[in-house]
Amino acid sequence: MKEILFIHPSADMYGSDKILINIIKNYNNSNNTLLIPRNGPLIETLQKECPQLRIIIYPQLPLIAKKNLKLKGIIKFVYSLFLFKRFLKKNRLNSPTIVYLNTLAVTPSLFYFKNSIKLVHVHEILKNNNVLHRFINYLAIQYSNHIICVSNAVANNLKQIASSKAYKITTIYNGISFNKENISIPSSRIKSKSINFALIGRIKPAQKGQILLLEAISLLKQEYLEKARFYLIGGTVQGQEYMLDEVIKEIKQKNLEQFVQIIPFTKDIESIYNHIDVSIVPSLVDDSFPTTILESMYFKKPVIGTYIGGIPEMIESGRNGFTFTPNNASELSEHIAFFIQNPEKIEVMGKIGQEIFNKKFTLEIFNKNYMHFISNLFKSQSI
After folding, report:
1. How many domains does the chain have?
2. Considering the entire predicted model, what is its pTM?
3. Which residues of 339-363 are buried (b: 16+ CB within 10 A; e: fewer)?
4. Alpha helices in the chain (DSSP H)
5. For range 177-187, the mean pLDDT
6. With helix as H, strand as E and coil as C, how does 232-292 read?
7. Nearest Cα residue to 195 out of 271, 275, 263
8. CA triplet 209, 211, 214: central angle to 5 degrees?
9. What is the pLDDT of residues 311-350, one digit of tens each?
10. Is 120 helix (H, G, I), strand (E, B) or coil?
């Protein structure tokens, strides 16, 4: 029986974490193991949905992280590489059939499995004009057997330096699903007193664009502003609470307290989307394939998103939402105003988004494409 070792850098429940659950479900047998550096909601979910999976929490898992760039971090990182080799041997994990590395953060693990098929699932875009990012991309390309990318934007970034190894790179769009029995999606929102816009994601203004959105809101005419409400749904990473303070300060400085509300993230995704009308994804950095957009499309919500990374592969501007130039508050404000002026378009564009989702981004389509890819990989490796 094939043995798969999954290596994952976090225990949260964001995009790459949710995709990992789906992939593990495809191989739910007692021969599979997950290595993860800490406890968290992901483990709780996996224990319920994949009871046969062996889960090992290993805090010394070698990870590529900013904290490891300082001298103390480098020393600790190098030591973790030595410890990891001993750990794998002691736990008889050094020769699985497949090593599945979820995200580039765990690429140091590539060096430990000479006789295994090494598969890297890349969810991020690390631009090659950064020396460190280019080196990480190079490691993934050079030492893996194959790379799955979540969007063409991710794949094209890697192919820039892949040269003769570009054949290793394949795009498979992520897919999601929900328990339809527990979901009630309003068929229309036109009778609502206000139009509810939401930015769902971690409070990271330099990446997720919360302050850019506040700037766009402040550019709206007062008559439009009176007809809308805006929700920033999410929290901060531990140690980065100051980012939330920055957003709160900006809301007060722009006198938007009446119109903008910050809500902590909740696992009840259905409840969130049942109370919003339009989703906003104003990313300031290359967003590879935002799960928030998939969720919005599933729940028939049009999306306003930055023309960056994999977002243009999801939003057909003018059909299921709009894209705008990166860091352009004026353009973003115009698209917000469009939905306030034309509330009937919300339902029309939302339905188109759901149709696109059903054709390209369902979990069934993802599983079919992924298993087809794995089957071909096994054949090519004579397994």
Report:
1. 2
2. 0.90
3. bbeebeebbebbebbbebbeeebbb
4. 15-26, 41-49, 71-90, 131-143, 152-162, 205-208, 210-218, 222-225, 241-253, 269-274, 291-298, 329-341, 344-360, 363-380
5. 56
6. EECCCCCCCHHHHHHHHHHHHHCCCCCCEEEECCCCCHHHHHHCCCEEEECCCCCCCCCHH
7. 275
8. 115
9. 999 999 999 999 999 999 999 999 999 999 999 999 999 9
10. strand
Q: Which two tokens stand for residue 188?
A: 């229309």
Domain with 330, as residue range(s), is 182-360
Is residue 98 predicted with pLDDT exceeding 80? Answer: yes
pLDDT for 223-243, tens place per residue?
Answer: 999 999 999 999 887 788 899
Distance in angstroms (rounded) separating the CA atoms of residues 269 and 116: 38
Q: Are residues 17 and 164 in the same domain?
A: yes
Q: For residues 146 and 129, is the Cβ–Cβ distance under 8 A?
A: no
Residue 324 pairs in a beta bridge with 306
| 321 within 8 A of 353, measured Cβ to Cβ | yes
Phi-psi region of 325 (alpha: psi -120 to 50; beta: other; left: phi over 0): beta
Instruction: Give the H/E segment covering residue 14.
Output: none
Contact assessment for residue 373 and residue 172, using Cβ atoms and an 8 Å cutoff: yes
Q: What would the DSSP string read from start to end of 83-113?
A: HHHHHHHHTT-SS-SEEEEESGGGGGGGGG-
The tens digit of pLDDT for each residue in 10-67 reads: 998 878 898 999 999 988 777 899 999 999 999 999 999 999 999 999 999 999 887 6
For residue 352, give the CATH number of its domain: 3.40.50.2000
> How far apart, in Å, are the Cα atoms of 262 and each of 89, 150, 343?
48, 30, 24
Three-class SS state of 149: strand
Q: How far is CA 218 from CA 112, 224, 257, in A?
A: 53, 11, 11
Three-state SS for 157? Answer: helix
> Which residue type is seen at 359?
K
Clarify whether residues 209 and 123 are in a common domain.
Answer: no
Together in a domain, 104 and 173: yes
